[in-house]
């Protein structure tokens, strides 16, 4: 769900166009957007819609706010920066209205967009090249890496929960991999020379996309049905071929263009130079990436939003009407309730949770 919320925040917010809002919940509230190819990948938008609608009903919030808040919390949960925190200059805002009218098609960036298109896309979304490049780093969470762990070993989902995978780890590996990989972008795609994956590999790959046993069972059943209907594994074609490597390119064609810009393997233009500078900076400094990502994320989910009150409502992430408590004995959560003082709040024990969360049932969110 965390990976899906990070993806949904971008897809809901960046589908902005003339006369239509950005983060407006329409991604999960309209059949049209749910069925679009970019949102039907992994069936992620449909799966997430049930979770987001349940949260919106429980907390009397808009789906747009649920997407914006959960995308921020998910980033932190996966090891990324704390986006929702006290900030008097650039606070995190809520109070968005939902739209039940789908945003126009083709408003998102195409998967094969080159760097010229990237520069123009960033400007059209009220984002700088630096901010848009920072947002691209979330592609490290894309599930094409399957069961691969950070140490390049593979986890077996039949024997383990596999929740320590690369695709569940917020790191700057996107910049490291794209900036270091020498590649050829194939137009048209060419037949891959890599060996075809086995059926068992494909099944494990699908199972690793979820840590929930219920979802894993559903994935396995669906893939088994697909293999039964078409037992022959199709030949694979490559949009991007890696040089001197027996590995598959796990990102998009656009990510390959970003990598080429990072390496200086594109035309010398002002925007390509800026992309290269940002990519290399984020590759060398995760702290710089996180700092820029926080700014870019808040700007992304705010642009084009329709607010309940002019300017929205600032939150710090420590709002809890039911007060904080802990399931662990002898843990004092009083300091967590003093949300006016950031220094005190930062000492809040991690075991302290909003009291209402302890009554949650997992089934409610699926």
Task: For the structure shown, list the relevant keywords.
366 residues, mainly alpha, Peroxidase, domain 1, 2 domains
Short description:
With 366 residues, this protein is mainly alpha-helical. Helix content is 42%, strand content 7%. It starts with a helix and ends in a 12-residue tail after the last strand.
Ordered list of secondary-structure elements with their pairings:
Elements: H1 2-13, H2 26-29, H3 31-34, H4 37-40, H5 44-59, H6 63-77, E1 92-94, H7 115-124, H8 129-136, H9 173-180, E2 183-191, H10 199-207, H11 213-229, E3 237-242, H12 253-263, H13 270-284, H14 286-302, E4 313-315, E5 324-326, H15 342-345, E6 352-354
Antiparallel strand pairs: 1-4, 2-3, 5-6
Helix pairs in contact: 1-6, 5-6, 8-13, 8-14, 9-12, 9-13, 10-11, 12-13, 13-14
Describe this entry's structure for a reader.
By secondary structure, the protein is mainly alpha-helical. It has 2 domains: about 250 residues, Peroxidase, domain 1, CATH 1.10.520; about 40 residues, no CATH class. Helix content is about 40%, strand content about 5%. The protein is built from 15 helices and 6 strands. Strands 1-4 form a two-stranded antiparallel sheet. A two-stranded antiparallel sheet has the order 2-3. Helix 1 crosses helix 6, helix 8 crosses helix 14 and helix 13 packs across helix 14. The radius of gyration is 21 Å and the shape is globular. The model has no long low-confidence stretch (mean pLDDT about 90).
Number of strands: 6
CATH architectural designation of the largest domain:
Orthogonal Bundle
Strand order in the largest sheet: 1-4
- Categorize the overall geometry: globular
User: Which structural class matches the secondary elements?
Assistant: mainly alpha
* Overall tally of domains: 2
Distinct helical segment count: 15
- For this structure, the CATH topology of the largest domain is Peroxidase, domain 1
Q: What is the radius of gyration? A: 21 Å
Mean pLDDT: 89
CATH top level class name of the largest domain: Mainly Alpha
Main beta sheet: strand number and arrangement?
A: 2 strands, antiparallel
Spans of 5+ residues with little confidence (pLDDT < 50)? none
- How large a portion of the residues is in β-strands, by DSSP E? 5-15%
What order do the SSEs take from the amino end to the carboxyl end, as H and E?
Answer: HHHHHHEHHHEHHEHHHEEHE
Distance between the termini: 10 Å
How helical, in percent, are the residues? 40-55%
């Amino acid at each position: 769900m965390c990976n899906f919320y990070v993806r949904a925040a971008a897809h809901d917010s960046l589908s902005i166009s003339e006369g239509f809002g950005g983060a407006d919940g329409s991604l999960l509230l309209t059949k049209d957007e749910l069925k679009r190819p970019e949102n039907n990948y992994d069936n992620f938008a449909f799966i997430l819609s049930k979770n987001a609608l349940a949260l919106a009903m429980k907390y009397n919030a808009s789906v747009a706010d649920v997407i914006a808040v959960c995308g921020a919390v998910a980033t932190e949960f996966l090891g990324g920066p704390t986006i929702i925190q006290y900030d008097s200059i650039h606070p995190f805002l809520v109070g968005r209205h939902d739209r039940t009218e789908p945003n126009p098609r083709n408003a998102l960036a195409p998967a094969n967009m080159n760097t010229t298109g990237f520069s123009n896309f960033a400007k059209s979304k009220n984002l700088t090249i630096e901010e848009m490049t920072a947002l691209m780093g979330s592609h490290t969470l894309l599930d094409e890496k399957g069961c691969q762990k950070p140490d390049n070993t593979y986890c077996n989902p039949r024997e383990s929960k596999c929740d320590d995978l690369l695709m569940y780890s917020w790191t700057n590996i996107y910049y490291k991999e794209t900036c270091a990989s020498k590649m050829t972008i194939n137009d048209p795609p060419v037949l891959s020379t890599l060996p075809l994956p086995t059926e068992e590999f494909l099944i494990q790959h699908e199972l690793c996309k979820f840590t929930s046993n219920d979802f894993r069972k559903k994935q396995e059943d669906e893939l088994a049905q697909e293999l039964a209907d078409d037992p022959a594994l199709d030949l694979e074609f490559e949009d991007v071929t890696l040089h001197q490597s027996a590995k598959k390119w796990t990102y998009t064609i656009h990510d390959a263009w970003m990598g080429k810009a990072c390496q200086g393997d594109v035309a010398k233009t002002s925007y390509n130079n800026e992309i290269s500078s940002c990519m290399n900076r984020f590759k060398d400094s995760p702290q710089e990436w996180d700092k820029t990502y926080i700014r870019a994320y808040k700007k992304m989910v705010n642009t084009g939003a329709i607010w309940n009150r002019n300017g929205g409502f600032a939150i710090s992430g420590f709002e809890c009407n039911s007060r904080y408590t802990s399931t662990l004995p002898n843990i004092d959560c009083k300091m967590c309730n003093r949300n006016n003082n950031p220094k005190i709040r930062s000492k809040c024990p991690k075991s302290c949770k909003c009291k209402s969360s302890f009554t949650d049932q997992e089934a409610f969110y699926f």
